[in-house]
Amino acid sequence: ELKVEQNPLFLSMQEGKNYTIYCNYSTTSDRLYWYRQDPGKSLESLFVLLSNGAVKQEGRLMASLDTKARLSTLHITAAVHDLSATYFCAVDWGARLTFGEGTQLTVNP
Amino acid sequence: NAGVTQTPKFQVLKTGQSMTLQCAQDMNHEYMSWYRQDPGMGLRLIHYSVGAGITDQGEVPNGYNVSRSTTEDFPLRLLSAAPSQTSVYFCATRDGPSEAFFGQGTRLTVV
Questions:
Q1: For chain B, what percent of residues have pLDDT higher than 90?
Q2: A48–B100: do the CB atoms touch at under 8 Å?
Q3: B106 in reach of chain A (CB within 8 A)
Q4: Could you write out the DSSP letters of every residue in A9-66?
């Protein structure tokens, strides 16, 4: 059974600071996705990482994938309040998409 | 182009009642899945389908049934609702092994 673990689960940071969210998974896969969820809303796709060494950037967020280490990171640069949300990683395993527990990010002024 | 449509958005059930959560997609995606979201537990896979006529169990299938008679629809049936099934339910579609697109969710309360 594939297990996906994120850390930290809760992150409170100041505007302007940098931080990284980690996503570890237990079984070989070369497809990983990051999603954002605002309170009371559905999930929105952020990044699609399809191979070892893949790196994607959008605004203040950058995601990377190391399939050998079974690790993905979501790096936040110079955080702003609008980034406050819950972030999920999800790993492709056969036809199943398995999610981490989510990281609840709060960016304080 | 509506994407993924879930109905109803909110539902209150009494223990022991049955109901069907509807999910319809107009993206012609092969894969469809049902997840439940509970605080602190991320999204857990209930059932999934890789095409019409093909379904399989996920992590937490007990108490739920599915069928997939068409590409477009993937209903989730609660056979006899229990308070432990109080949750937010999301339907998702994928064009094969690729990113998922989610419906708006159904918030279910079982009393």
A1: 92
A2: no
A3: no
A4: SEEEEETT--EEEEEEESS--S-EEEEEE-TTS-EEEEEEE-STT-EEEETTEEEEEE
